[in-house]
Amino acid sequence: MGETIETDAGGIWVERRGEGPDVLLIAGLSDPAEAWQAQLDGLADRYRLTAYDNRGTGRTPLPAGPLSVPGMADDAAAVLRALEIPAAHVVGFSGGSRIAQELALNHPRLVRSLVLVSTWARPDAYSHSMMGFWHWMAERAPNERAMLEAFLLWIYTPRAHNDGTVDRVIEETMAFPHPQSVEAFQRQLAPFRTHDTLDRLSEITAPTLVMAGELDIATPPRLGRAVAERIPGARFEVLPGEAHQPFQEVPDAFNARVATFWQEVQIRG
């Protein structure tokens, strides 16, 4: 059961599960903490996991004024400090991976290790146009279902579209009692569309694993590879046959891989 915690940045909704070394899960565009359910369930026997709703998502309110990626990273830092977590293994997905990059750059002592999933550092022309399309699609789609059906074409594998997984995700999203408004979606998307960390990634000192889906059309592997090449000592891995959201489509394999990485980090001290 989650709760709203008071931080220096205001109220933020968090979900916590398990016991052990601390893990912070940072979700991507529009995703509430529940996006990490398979990790909250599957890793809680070994780790203490914290997931939270980003600004304008789920139960964390949308503030006045524009959002920024560094500002959302400050929110992540505020969550860790409010929960008295001195340092955590940090996992960031998609837009959340941009937040995780800034967290590692601006609050390095809070980051024990870094896993960046479906990530990028500098938006290229394709990324810029894609996210521009998402911006106006959110307000011009005929209804919520049509918006989700279109948006999720970039997110899940053809396998998930054909086996009913995407239909189930759509039903669950539409039944979620804390839907994201069009305004919140667009305001959260805006900083992800333009934010650039490429020239600063060499400053990240945390052990880093970068994971990309072979079939990801939203953040193709070439973008993740560019991130890994800039972070000293980072590992880069492509997940065969997977797309943008592997931690949901193949959670057992994903959980096993990140747990192995964290164990290696702990052994190295």
TrEMBL record:
GO cellular component: membrane
UniProt xrefs under SUPFAM superfamilies: alpha/beta-Hydrolases
Keyword Hydrolase part of the UniProt annotation: yes
InterPro entries given in the database record: AB_hydrolase_1, AB_hydrolase_fold, AB_hydrolase_sf
Coiled-coil portions: none
One GO MF term: hydrolase activity
Keyword Hydrolase assigned: yes
Entry keyword set: Hydrolase
Domain AB hydrolase-1: 23-246
Name of the protein: Alpha/beta hydrolase
